[in-house]
TrEMBL record:
Organism, scientific name: Nocardia colli
InterPro entries linked to this entry: Homeodomain-like_sf, HTH-type_TetR-like_transc_reg, HTH_TetR, MT1864/Rv1816-like_C, Tet_transcr_reg_TetR-rel_C_sf
Record-linked PANTHER family: HTH-TYPE TRANSCRIPTIONAL REGULATOR BETI, HTH-TYPE TRANSCRIPTIONAL REGULATOR RUTR
Pfam families linked: TetR_C_33, TetR_N
Protein name as annotated: TetR/AcrR family transcriptional regulator
Signal peptide stretch: none
This protein's UniProt keywords: DNA-binding, Transcription, Transcription regulation
Length: 221
């Protein structure tokens, strides 16, 4: 796999490659998946510095990762594929944040565990606005009539479905079935987060969490 490392041109000027980042170790045979992860991590960092995904380019991501653009094409056919891969990468980060937050709450506190997951999703969205816009830009996936949707967004909602199901199993009454409660909670939190940048007087995540807590409480009987 080709790598561009810092070199100097004949006239002594530093080549363009030295500007893409610090030298990186070569991946051994079979470590292509690691490079793919490094590319996505670099794209995630770059997105944090941009106003939106429009500024995300193959060359820019390559520069951030410290590799040649051709190395990216070995994992992503074009920019569109890279953006899709980045969205999936960010959803994985979100799921991990939610699972970690849930794990910090005692197993017997089933309502607290659900709230912890929703809080984690809100904080992720507030702290990573560009990433969150990218993740939710296309909405839920379209499916055939009667088929259950699938995809990274649905995987996140399914964490909440499981959480609300545990509430019901523990005797905590819900006004609606667990799956419906999860959708209501997620959509409510998503809507509040979407309005956050334009909210006058509400400039921190705590204001979002307070509203979301009140909203989520409505699904409990």
């Amino acid at each position: 796999m080709t790598r561009y490392l810092p070199v100097s041109s004949k006239n002594g000027d530093v080549s363009e490659e030295v500007q893409v980042g610090a030298p990186r170790a070569r991946n051994r045979w079979g470590e292509g998946e690691r490079l793919r992860g490094e590319i996505l991590a670099a794209a995630s960092r770059l997105l944090s510095e941009l106003d939106g995904e429009d500024g995300l380019t193959i060359r820019g991501v390559a520069r951030a990762a410290g590799i040649a653009p051709s190395s990216i094409y070995q994992h992503f056919t074009d920019r569109g594929a890279l953006v899709v891969g980045l969205a999936e990468y960010e959803f994985a980060r979100l799921r991990t944040a939610m699972e970690v937050a849930e794990g910090r709450v005692e197993s017997g506190d089933v309502v607290g565990r659900v709230r912890a997951m929703i809080h984690a999703s809100c904080r992720f969205a507030v702290d990573n606005p560009g990433h969150y816009r990218l993740m939710t830009a296309d909405g839920p996936p379209l499916t055939a009539s009667g088929a259950r949707p699938a995809g990274p967004l649905i995987d996140v909602v399914d964490l909440l479905v499981a959480g609300f199901a545990r509430c019901a199993a523990a005797g905590v009454a819900l006004r609606v079935p667990a799956e419906r409660a999860a959708v209501i909670a997620f959509v409510g939190a998503h809507g509040r987060v979407a309005l956050f940048p334009n909210s006058t007087g509400y400039t921190d995540a705590d204001s979002v969490l307070s509203f979301v807590d009140e909203f989520v409480s409505l699904v409990f009987a």
